[in-house]
Amino acid sequence: MSTSVLQATNEEIQQLLKNTKTIAVVGLSDNPARPSHEVAAYLLRHGYRIIPVNPSATEILGQKSYASLHAIPERVDIVDIFRNVEAIPGLVEEALKLNPRCVWMQLGLSHEQAAGVARDAGILVVMNKCIKIEHSRLL
Q1: Spatial CB neighbours of 61, under 8 Å, sequence gap ≥ 6
Q2: What is the distance between the alpha carbons of residues 29 and 50, in angstroms, rounded to a whole number?
């Protein structure tokens, strides 16, 4: 495997965001001051369906929260990760079972090995970018 996984292009991200309906937000906080909460609220306002993944909450932003990706009973388009970098390999393995179109690691997060696993499974990878910033920039 190469030392750097190819990052999604602006065009790929733009098409992904145009064609996405459902986003699982892993590590979504119920605290409005947290970045994950702000980003998910923005995505909701822009017409996306948000599925919170937080074992400590039953509902966030009016949406049913799930304890893990395994517990989500439907397909999601994007798995958006707001967890520490050490959790990413396990989350990517869980995400593969949902067959998302994209695994998105939020601003400040990247994991080359986990990204390689996702890409090898045919899943688009975005690392170290904020989905809110990219949405407002590209759409």
Answers
A1: 28, 37, 40, 41, 44, 50, 52
A2: 13
Q: What is the model's pLDDT at position 130?
A: 96
pLDDT tens digits, 52-91: 999 999 999 999 999 999 999 999 999 999 999 999 999 9
For residues 33-48, give the mean pLDDT: 97
- Tokens of residue 89, six digits: 């390999």
Nearest CA-CA partner of 36 in 82, 104, 88: 82
Average pLDDT, the chain: 94
113, burial (CB in 10 Å: exposed 0-12, middle 13-18, buried 19+): exposed
DSSP state of 129: -
- Using a 10 angstrom Cβ sphere, with 0-12 exposed, 13-18 middle and 19 or more buried, the burial of residue 83 is middle
- Side chain identity at residue 52, one-letter code: P
Closest CA to 85 of 12, 40, 27: 27
